Amino acid sequence: MLKTGLKNEQKVGEILVSGSLAIKTKNSFGVHIFSGSVVDDGIVTGKLTKPKYKESELLKSIDTTIIELIPVEPPVLPEMVLKSLYDAALQEIADRDLIITQLNSDILDLRAKVKELEIVTQSLLVQLDSKDLVVASAENQTQQANSKVGSTIVELQNSIQKATAESIQRVSLFARNQTLEKQVEELREELFGKAAKIQEGFKVSDDFGVKVVNISDKSYPDITFRARAKDDGDGVWINGPEIRIVNFTKNEVTVNVTQDGAIAGIFNPIGSITLTPGQNLGFKLSTRKDKVDDFAPSAGFGTVGDTPYNGNIVFKSKIGVLNIPVELQKQRGNQWGG
């Protein structure tokens, strides 16, 4: 049986080599004729293409650098540590500072105990001296018992009493001198701390100091708040509201903060503040709008009826008291803007 069409392996091979040129079934009108009598019958070609590759192009594709396959190098950054490690290091430093402070306190206590032991040692030395004097007195009495018993005993007793009294007085004065030297040193350090805070603008008591940080107009009291009538308590700070409080002693100080005078109650209460030795702490006052609105004038315009109200913020510890003057200026109208 004659193999025609695509069953003709030879014809298919020619098509793979020559493409559509190998198909010659068209007549002069460009129409394919199928008679069934030749091997070409049944073969219709469309776009039969033979894949052709240039060796140079293949080599280019092999040498091509594919960027997507190159690992991305991380950018160069400065040396840094994790915030968690940094915070932990800061906390450790703070803990060590507390330990150092406690150890310094322990050292002072131990030095005081050493001084006490030195005093006891001096007292024992005095006792030994007294015993030596007693022994010497006894020997002298034995040697002169026959001739001057009465006068010798009296003289020796006087000498012993005088020496003992002088020794006791000497030890007592030495101990008092040591104690006074320590007290003088502590007072000198507190005095230097107090003087330094005065130079920095603090008002100082015996154990703490207070300073209003932002005083823009010294013609008004240290803390001055200006409010308008019917303004829901809003206003401007002429002086204040930031305050710093410092403990310049070597002991912990607790300071109670209160308000007195006509302005009592216009600020939110502070309560008590406990300061460690040498601590410098800052805080800001805040007004109570409802309390500020209660002060006259409460409505209107102009300057008639503008009223100042005065008082103090009182800082009080066990041994010291400081009053910071306060003025609430309640005004009509809009003299200060806003």
Summarize the structure.
The chain has 338 residues and is α+β, with helices and mostly antiparallel strands. The chain contains five helices and ten strands, in the order H-H-H-H-E-E-E-E-E-E-E-E-H-E-E.
Overall number of domains:
3
The CATH H-level superfamily of the largest domain is Immunoglobulins
The outline comes out as elongated
Work out the number of β strands.
Answer: 10
**What's the N-to-C terminus distance?**
111 Å
Largest sheet entry: 6 strands, mixed
List SSEs in N-to-C order: HHHHEEEEEEEEHEE
Structural class: alpha+beta
Strand order of the largest sheet: 4-3-10-9-6-7
Q: Specify the CATH architecture of the largest domain.
A: Sandwich
CATH class of the largest domain: Mainly Beta
Estimated radius of gyration: 53 Å
**Kindly state the mean pLDDT as a whole number?**
78
Beta fraction: 15-25%
Instruction: Quickly count the helices.
Output: 5
**CATH fold node name of the largest domain:** Immunoglobulin-like
Helix amount, in percent? 40-55%
**Poorly predicted spans:** none
List the helices and strands and how they pair.
Blueprint: H1 9-18, H2 55-63, H3 83-143, H4 149-199, E1 203-204, E2 209-212, E3 223-228, E4 235-239, E5 242-246, E6 253-261, E7 271-275, E8 280-284, H5 289-293, E9 307-316, E10 321-331
Parallel strand pairs: 3-10
Antiparallel strand pairs: 1-2, 2-5, 3-4, 5-8, 6-7, 6-9, 9-10
Helix pairs in contact: 3-4
